[in-house]
Amino acid sequence: MPLSLPLGVAVVGCGGIGTRRAATAAENERTRLVAVADVAAERAQGVAARFNCAWSTNWEEVVGRDDVQLVIVSTSNDAHAPVSIAAMERGKHVLCEKPLARNPEEARQMVETARRYNVKLKTGFNHRFHHQVQKARELYEAGAIGELIFIRARTGHGGGEAFAQSWFAKKERSGGGTFLDNGVHLLDLARWFMGEFVQASGFVSTNLWLIAPCEDNGFGLFRTADNRVASLHSSWTQWRGYLYMELWGTKGFLIIDYEPPRTVLVQRERGPSGESVEQVFSFAGVRDRSWERDLEEMVRAILEDREPLASGYDGLRAVEMAYAVYRSSETGMAVAL
User: Is the pTM of this model over 0.85?
Assistant: First the structure.
């Protein structure tokens, strides 16, 4: 279809994340929010009234509109693949929330569909675009910590009784527990900094919330071909904090922290007496622009005809990493990636 600016955008799924995605599309100068869809009419109507666009309870109706070039999928995980694939088969570009799909098979179908129909597929890994992550990436690429040796990181939230009753904790709809939910952000960031992993081992457990077979904690070790390792923990029983990541290199290390939002750089033997030197880059009080940057990256990728940062393939690999830990936990053996 002919491409002209602003790009027409449809958002499927009008929950909290979908509403935020709709806001970014409505506010971006190079996109125009055309329509939204949700199975709950009151949610769709509310978002449409707020941003002055069309609405429907039928996602196929908005995905098929001729004035839509980009579809943002922010539904429950079980609808990610069917909605995204249908949109791409109609020639639409797709930005799909994380995790890309419930399992590697669905994610692989999505990536293959994007290739077949020559459209862009982006995974909604907005964490790549947080201020503290962007600063860490800038410092890392500038060689501030040398070559990366290992990563140690965790992410989590407290879950809760209401959360345990939601679709997030129903495996037929979610595909998995914490490692596939908030954990995929950590998996993606580790792979973005360290590169491809070739082997995974780990354990998952369900020791608090009544959500089995979904897990409320997952622990994974991921190894690269040259024996560098990322140690990652994802939790739904973490009472404080959200995401904390250490990147250890040959010349120093970086810390990515979310509470408080900051990037810390420690460089060894940089002081006047050979001591390590620490720099703290604080983003406390700075407005989060990760959602806007995520959409801006997708628009640029479409206009420049290239793969977006945090592509569909990146989303597939994160799902594969989570499922490798699931298999390792079941078998007690390391799993090839």
Answer: yes
